[in-house]
């Protein structure tokens, strides 16, 4: 088993059981404790577990939500590929919505200046990325700015989205699973994401494979709210099949 495959298995076990310990993992995978510790260090650097004495705990069990900079520094190659694939979904003209988050933010940076688009976004980084592109009519959703994501939340944002209708919404998520749908740690973020999905004719979810099978506190949608999931090739094939059977088109890049 390659290190990346083993680390995915370790992460899955941590999320299922709430924690993992070094001795048990070493025996299960027939590897040394030092190798397990290296795997746990790699997972911690990816922002998906927190090392504790003798093992590790998945970050969602700790109630930890990494900041924007920390999340932007992990899974960078995968996020770039996902954003590039998402660009193929962006129409030449019309109206789209760009959610907050680091993967959707990469898509914002890729949108060509000559597209005749109305772009609705609650995300301040997305707004800065698009502000000077001549073909873009930028509609910045107002509200309380949440520092963790640099995106607008609460009633002002909800009121704006209530009267908005776009062709495609590009949405991010902290977690998604067949059992619990689309989740995020914060209830205010969840409300805005739910309103964004409701405003769109089609919804495209951008999420790298570490989000799949991961559940957070606040649910903002079901998988049947999603038309297309764009993820990376690290997704477990069986999980991808399960998602496909719910009616979602899965694109792994």
From TrEMBL:
Keyword line: DNA-binding, Repressor, Transcription, Transcription regulation
Lineage, uppermost ranks: Bacteria, Bacillati, Actinomycetota, Actinomycetes, Pseudonocardiales
Molecular function via GO: DNA binding
A Pfam family that the UniProt record links to this protein: HTH_DeoR
Listed InterPro entries: Carb_Metab_HTH_regulators (IPR050313), DeoR-like_C (IPR014036), DeoR_HTH (IPR001034), NagB/RpiA_transferase-like (IPR037171), WH-like_DNA-bd_sf (IPR036388), WH_DNA-bd_sf (IPR036390)
Function: Repressor of the lactose catabolism operon. Galactose-6-phosphate is the inducer.
Sequence ranges assigned to domain HTH deoR-type in this UniProt record: 3-58
Name of the molecule in the record: Lactose phosphotransferase system repressor
SUPFAM superfamilies per record: NagB/RpiA/CoA transferase-like, Winged helix' DNA-binding domain
PANTHER family linked: GLYCEROL-3-PHOSPHATE REGULON REPRESSOR, HTH-TYPE TRANSCRIPTIONAL REGULATOR SRLR-RELATED
